[in-house]
Write a structure and sequence with these properties.
- Chains B, D: This is Thiamine pyrophosphate-dependent dehydrogenase E1 component subunit alpha.
- The complex is a heterotetramer, with two copies of chain A (342 residues) and two copies of chain B (318 residues).
- With 342 residues, chain A is of the alpha/beta class.
- Chain A has two domains: 187 residues, Thiamin diphosphate (ThDP)-binding fold, Pyr/PP domains (Rossmann fold); 141 residues, Rossmann fold, CATH 3.40.50.920.
- Helices cover 35% and strands 20% of the residues of chain A.
- Chain A is built from eleven helices and 14 strands.
- The radius of gyration of chain A is 20 Å and the shape is globular.
- The C terminus of chain A is likely disordered.
- Chain B has 318 residues and is an alpha/beta fold.
- Chain B has a single domain, classed as Thiamin diphosphate (ThDP)-binding fold, Pyr/PP domains (Rossmann fold, 3-Layer(aba) Sandwich), CATH 3.40.50.
- Helix content of chain B is 45%, strand content 10%.
- Chain B contains eleven helices and seven strands.
- The model of chain B has no long low-confidence stretch (mean pLDDT 97).
- Classes of the chains: A alpha/beta (342), B alpha/beta (318).
- The structure holds thiamine diphosphate (2 copies) and magnesium ion (2 copies).
- One thiamine diphosphate sits at the interface of chains B and A.
- One thiamine diphosphate sits at the interface of chains D and C.
Chain lengths: 342, 318, 342, 318
C-alpha cells in the first residue's frame, strides 16, 4: 500500500501532482502537447514537470493530429502518453485519431494491442471567450464506444480521475475546466491506490428531486439546490464525473426515491448527454411524479460578450426555475402517473 | 503621392493600430474588457503594408485572433472594434465575436479566426469562388509561424497551388507560437521554403517595413489577378508584448525584449521619416492626434449600450 | 411555377438529377470533392456532371479540410458549394470546418455573412466494410446548433431533400447511404418547386406503437412492422428525414395516439439521436403505456465480417422483438402509468 | 547469400503476394469474400524490398487498406489473411478487420489503416516511443501518393523531422488516388521534394525493383537507428489493377495498362533472373509452387469456422 499524503492544492496543482506521480511511478509515461513543457502550459498546469522529468515531457508543434496520432502510435510501442489538447474545440481538427483510430485499436486486434492514452483537455465558456473557445463537447466523445470520458470538478477528483485515466489501458479523455484551475486550494489525499473507474458521486442528498449534473455546472446546480431548499424543495445533486461509462445505476436509484429528475449541463441541450440520461430513465420505466427536465445551452453559438454568454449558459437561477417547475407545478400529479406540462 | 507622403500615411495607420492596442491594454487592466486578448504590437507594418497593396472594395483578408491590426488597416473604425471588445451593441459583431472572432466584411475584413490554421482553407475557398465570377478578387490568408505546422494550412496551400487560385498566404513570423519558439518546432526555419513543396513562389519579406511589405504584396496581387496563382510571403517580425494580455513572457531569452524594441517598425519608420526631413515634433503631433482619436473612440464605446440580451438567439439560421 | 416531370430514377440517379438541376438553375453552384468530376464519383453518383457543367464540377485532392474549408470560404464570396465527403467517417479529419467554422458564420456576423454549403456524404455499414467505413455519425452533427442534417432514404427524398439543402442559406449535411444508391428505380417527380425543410414523414400508419426511425434502418423498421402486424400489433412508422431541425411535433402527435414509442437507428444507441427523441418525449410528459425502447448498435466497434456486423446492427428481427416487448409484455400496464420492465 | 539467391527470394515473396491477390480476386468474384478490396498487384517490390531491410522482430510497418502485400512481406501466413477476408475465426483479426483493417503486430505488421494519411502520425508516435526505450526500433509509415495532400501526413513529417524520430516515410506512388491521377492533384509531382520543406532527406526510388527498394530502406534504417531522423522515400510504381476490385478503370488513358504490364516488377525480376542464368521452367516451377501454396491456404481457410458471433462484443475495453 502506498503512503497517502494530505496536501493543500488547487485544481491545477492537483492535476500537476497526478502527472508528477504518473511520471515518477511509471517510466513508460510521456507528457506532451503544445506549450506544456518549457512554458509549463498556458494555464500553468504542467509547470515544473519538464525540469523534473526531462525529455519525457516535451512541447509539440501546433499539430493536433500529430499529438493524438503520436499518442496512439507511442501506445502501440509501449508508451503511455498523456497529451494535452489545449481546448476541447481544437480536438475537432483531429478527431479522426480518437474516433477512427484510438477507439478501434483494442477491439480490432482483439486485445493484442491497446491504446492506453490519456487526453487532457478543458472546455466550456469563460468570460470573454469566443464561440470557438467555448463549446462543451462531451457528447461527441461519449457517443463513441471504445473511448472513456470523465469530467472532474474538484481538486480531489482532478487528481484521482486523472490517475485512473492514465492507469487505464484504454483511451480516456479527461475534460477539465479552465475556470476551475486556479480556484481555492483544498486538502486532497494523494499517493493512495489508483482507483478503478468508480462512477457518479452524490454531492448533496435530498428527497424531492434528483438533479444530475457534471462539469462546472455542478456549482450552479449546488447553488440552485441551496436556493430552492429555502423554499422547501429538497434536491439530491449527483455529479456524474464519468460520462462514459455512464453510471446510470446511481441515477436510477436516486430517481426511484425522489420520483423526479432534472439534468443540468453546460453543453447544448439538443443531443447533449442529458438526453442519454433522460432516455435511460425513460427506458427503465420508473414511475415519475413529473416529467423529466433538462437545463442546457439552447440552440445558439456562444457569444463572446460575458453578459450575452450568461444569457444562454445554464445558471443557478435557470436550474432553480426548472426544479420549481418540476416540483411545484407538477405537485398535483404526484400520484404516480406521468403528467403533461405546457 | 510622394514616397514621403506614403510613408507618413503608413506611420499614421501603424500608430492608430498601436494606440488602439495600448488602449485595449488599459481597458483590460481595469477589467472593462475581459477574457483573452491577443495584441499585435510590433507587427503593424504587415497589416498596413499589405492593405496598401489591396483593393479592399473587392479583395479580402482572413486573419487570426490577433486581428485588431488587420481590421484597422482595412479601415474598420476603432470605435467599432473597441465597442466589440466591450460587448456593446455598436460592436462590429454586436459583441458576439469579441477580441478574437469579430468580422467586418464591409471593410474586406472577412473575420478573425481562433482556430489555428483554419483560415487558410477558408481564404483559399474564397479565392476559388473568385475564379468563377470574373471579379478579379484576391484573398489574403494571414497566420502565424506556428500555424504552418497545422494540417489545414498544408491542405490549403496544395489546393491553391494546384488550381492556381488568387490567394496570398502571409506568414506573420513573430518567432513564437504562444509561448514556444518556432525554431524548436520546425527544422527548417526559413518558412517560406515550404512554398516550393507546393510549387508556388515563396519569399522572405522584412515584415517591419511597410514599404517592403507593400511591394511584395502588390507583386503577389498582380500575379494573382493575372491567374498565376498563390504566393507564400514570410514576413519577419516580432511581437513586442505577450501572446495574450497577462502573458508574463518568462520564455523570452534575457535581453530579447530590449533588442526587438530597437528594430520595431514604428521606431524604424520614424527614423526614416526624420531622414526624409520630418521633425520629432511633427511625429509627436501625429502620435498625439492618433491617441486622442482612440481616446475619443474608447470614451464613445464605453458610453454605448451593452448589446441586448433579448436578441441573443437570433441569426442562428436564416 | 416550374414544370414538373415524372421520371424513373434510382436513389443515385435522383441525386444526380438534383445536382444537375442545381447547377443548371443557379450559376453560383459549385460541385467538388474527391473523384467527383472526371471519374463521376466512386459510386457513380456525379456521373456526367463535369461533362455538362465544365469546371464548376471539379476533383479535389485528398484534403478534407480544404474541401470543407474551401466550401465555407467560397460561400463568403458568393458561391454555393455542394461538396462530397466520401464517407461520413472521413469528416472526422476536418470536423473543425463544420463545427467551428460553418456553424458560426451567420451567428457571429449577425447575418451579414452566411455559409450556404451542402455537404453530401454517406454512412453506415455495408457488407464487408471495416470499422473506419461503417459508422453512423448523425448524432455528432445534430448536436451542433448552426448545422442542419437530413437523411433521405427514398429516391424522391434524395432528390427533394438535396435541393432543399442546396437552396438553404445555411450549412446542411445530407447523409446518404451507399447501400441505397443503386437500388430499384422508381418514379420520382422532378422540377417542382424546391421545398422548405418539411420534417418527418409517416411511412406506415398504425395505432399500437410509434416506431421512429431514419436512414436505412427504415427498411428494417418497415419489415418489422409487417412481421408484428401478423401478430396483431399495428405499428406507425415515422421516417424522421430531418435530424436537425428535429420534427418532434410529428413524433409527439403520434405517440399521443399510440401511447408507446420505439426508436430504431443504425448509430450506436448510447448518445445517439434516439436519446434526444426519447428525452423530448419524456420531457413532454406524455402518458405512455409502456417504457420507451431504443434499438441501435450496442457499444462495440463495427466488425468487418458481414455476419459479425449483422450481429450488432439493428435488424428487423431485433426491432420486432423490441416492439413485442413494448406492446405485449407491458399490455398489463395499459392503464396510463409508466411501468417498469426488466 | 549470393545476389542471385537474394533476388530469387524476392521473387518468391513477390509471387506469393501476387498469387494471394489473384486468389482474393477469384474469391471476391464468387462473393465468398464481400466488400471493398484493394489489391496491390504491381507494387509488390516495395513490400518485399522494404521488409528485407527491416528487422521485423523489433521494427514495424504501418501500411494502408492496400496492405495484403505488406502483411505477406512481413511474414503473415496467407492462410491467416484469407481467413480474415473470409470472416473466419482463424482470420488474423478474427474477421474484425477484414481486407482493409487487419493487424498482425506479432509480425511487425502494425495494422492497416483505412483513413488516408492517418497511419503517418501513428507510425511517428511509435518511433517517438522507440526513442525512449533504447530498443532501436524503427517504424515505417507507408501510404499512397494522394495521401501526401492530407494534413495528418504533413503534421507527422514535421513532427518526425523536428524530433529526429526513427521513422521512414514510404510513398507508394502508383500515380493514382482512387480514380484521379496524382498529376492533377499536385503541382510538383516529384513528391519526394516535399521532404525538403521539413528538413529531412527525400529521394526517389525505383519501386519496381526490390533490390533498389531494399538498398534505400536499409540506408534509411541505418540512419534512423543512429538517431539521425526520418527520411521520405518516394517509390515509383503502378497498380496493375483497379483501385478496388470492380473498378472498371475508365479513367486510365488508352494503352496505359498495356504499357505498365511491361515494366511491372515481377516481369522485370524474372528477366533479371534469366539474365543471371535461371531458366523459364525454374521460374514457372516457382510460380506453380507458390500458387499451390495459396490454393491450399484458401482451401483451408474456406474450411475454417466462421468467427463466432457470441464474442462480438468482447475486447471493446480491457
Ligand atoms: C487548432 C488550434 N490549436 C491550438 C490553438 C491554441 N493556440 C492559439 S494561438 C496559438 C499559437 C499560434 O502561433 P502562431 O501561428 O505563430 O501565431 P501568433 O499567435 O504568433 O500570431 C496556439 C497554439 C488553437 N487556437 N487552435
Ligand atoms: C481521409 C480520407 N479521405 C478519403 C478517403 C477515401 N480514399 C480511400 S483510398 C483513397 C485514395 C488514396 O490514394 P493514394 O494515397 O494514392 O493511395 P493508393 O490507394 O493509390 O494506394 C481515397 C481518396 C479515405 N479513406 N480517407
Ligand atoms: Mg507566431
Ligand atoms: Mg496512389
Amino acid at each position: 500500500m502506498p503512503d497517502t499524503v494530505i496536501k493543500r492544492a488547487s485544481y491545477a496543482e492537483a492535476i500537476n501532482a497526478a502527472l508528477g506521480r504518473a511520471l515518477r511511478e511509471r517510466s513508460e509515461v510521456l507528457v506532451f502537447g503544445e506549450d506544456v513543457a518549457l512554458p509549463g502550459g498556458v494555464f500553468g498546469v504542467t509547470k515544473g514537470l519538464q525540469r523534473q522529468f526531462g525529455d519525457r515531457v516535451f512541447d509539440m508543434p501546433i499539430s493536433e493530429s500529430a499529438i493524438l496520432g503520436g499518442a496512439v502510435g507511442a501506445g502501440l510501442f509501449g508508451a503511455r502518453s498523456v497529451v494535452e489538447i489545449m481546448w476541447a474545440d481544437f480536438s475537432l481538427v483531429a478527431l479522426d485519431q480518437l474516433v477512427n483510430q484510438a477507439a478501434n485499436v483494442r477491439y480490432i486486434s482483439r486485445g493484442m494491442l491497446a491504446s492506453p492514452i490519456t487526453v487532457r483537455t478543458q472546455q466550456g465558456n469563460a468570460p470573454g471567450a469566443c464561440a470557438q473557445h467555448s463549446q462543451s463537447l462531451e457528447a461527441l466523445f461519449a457517443h463513441i464506444p471504445g473511448l472513456q470520458v470523465c469530467m472532474p470538478t474538484t481538486p480531489q477528483d482532478a487528481y484521482d480521475l486523472l490517475l485512473t485515466s492514465i492507469w487505464s489501458d484504454d483511451p480516456t479523455i479527461v475534460i477539465e475546466n479552465r475556470t476551475l484551475y486556479h480556484g481555492d486550494k483544498v486538502d486532497i489525499t494523494t499517493g493512495g491506490p489508483v482507483q478503478p473507474i468508480d462512477g457518479a458521486q452524490v454531492r448533496r442528498q435530498g428527497s424531492d428531486i434528483t438533479l444530475v449534473t457534471w462539469g462546472s455546472t455542478q456549482f450552479a446546480a449546488l447553488d440552485a439546490a441551496s436556493v430552492v431548499a429555502r423554499e422547501g424543495i429538497d434536491v439530491e445533486v449527483i455529479d456524474m464525473r464519468w460520462i462514459r461509462p455512464l453510471d446510470h445505476e446511481t441515477v436510477l436509484a436516486s430517481v426511484e426515491r425522489t420520483g423526479r429528475l432534472a439534468i443540468a449541463h453546460e453543453a447544448h441541450t439538443t443531443g447533449g448527454v442529458g438526453a442519454e440520461i433522460a432516455a435511460r430513465v425513460a427506458e427503465h420505466g420508473l414511475r415519475l411524479t413529473s416529467p423529466i427536465v433538462r437545463i442546457g445551452t439552447p440552440d445558439v453559438r456562444i457569444p463572446a460578450a460575458p453578459h450575452l454568454a450568461q444569457a444562454v449558459i445554464p445558471s443557478a437561477a435557470r436550474i432553480a426555475d426548472a426544479i420549481r417547475r418540476a416540483c411545484v407545478l407538477n405537485a398535483s400529479f404526484a400520484g404516480g402517473t406521468v403528467a403533461s406540462h405546457g | 503621392m510622394s514616397d514621403e507622403e506614403q510613408i507618413w500615411g503608413h506611420l499614421e495607420r501603424m500608430r492608430r493600430i498601436r494606440s488602439l492596442e495600448e488602449k485595449i491594454t488599459e481597458l483590460r487592466a481595469t477589467n472593462q474588457i475581459v477574457g483573452s486578448v491577443h495584441l499585435c504590437n510590433g507587427q503593424e507594418a504587415i497589416y498596413v503594408g499589405a492593405c496598401a497593396a489591396l483593393d479592399l472594395t473587392r479583395d479580402a483578408v482572413f486573419p487570426t485572433y490577433r486581428g485588431h491590426g488587420w481590421a484597422v488597416a482595412c479601415g474598420v473604425p476603432p470605435h467599432a472594434i473597441l465597442a466589440e471588445l466591450l460587448g456593446r451593441s455598436t460592436g462590429i459583431s454586436g459583441g458576439r465575436g469579441g477580441s478574437a472572432y469579430f468580422t467586418a466584411p464591409d471593410y474586406g475584413f472577412y473575420g478573425e479566426n481562433s482556430i489555428v490554421g483554419a483560415g487558410a482553407p477558408i481564404a483559399t475557398g474564397a479565392a476559388l469562388a473568385a475564379t468563377f465570377d470574373g471579379s478579379g478578387r484576391v484573398a489574403v490568408a494571414s497566420f502565424g509561424d506556428g500555424a504552418l505546422n497545422q494540417g489545414a494550412v498544408h491542405e490549403a496551400m496544395n489546393f491553391a497551388a494546384v488550381r492556381s487560385l488568387p490567394v496570398i498566404f502571409i506568414v506573420e513570423n513573430n518567432g513564437y507560437s504562444e509561448l514556444t519558439p518556432i525554431s524548436a518546432m520546425v527544422k527548417v526555419d526559413q518558412l517560406f521554403r515550404r512554398a516550393n513543396a507546393y510549387g508556388m513562389p515563396g519569399a522572405r519579406v522584412d515584415g517591419n517595413d511597410p514599404v517592403a511589405v507593400s511591394a511584395a504584396v502588390a507583386q503577389a496581387v498582380e500575379r494573382a489577378r493575372r491567374g498565376k496563382g498563390p504566393v507564400l510571403l514570410e514576413m519577419i517580425t516580432q511581437r513586442l508584448v505577450g501572446h495574450y494580455i497577462g502573458d508574463v513572457q518568462h520564455y523570452r531569452p534575457e535581453g530579447e525584449l530590449a533588442a526587438i524594441a530597437k528594430v520595431e517598425p514604428i521606431v524604424r519608420l520614424e527614423q526614416r521619416l526624420i531622414g526624409l526631413g520630418r521633425t520629432r515634433p511633427e511625429l509627436d503631433d501625429l502620435h498625439t492626434a492618433v491617441r486622442n482619436e482612440i481616446d475619443d473612440a474608447a470614451a464613445a464605446a464605453l458610453g454605448d449600450q451593452l448589446a441586448p440580451t433579448n436578441t441573443v438567439l437570433e441569426h442562428l439560421y436564416a
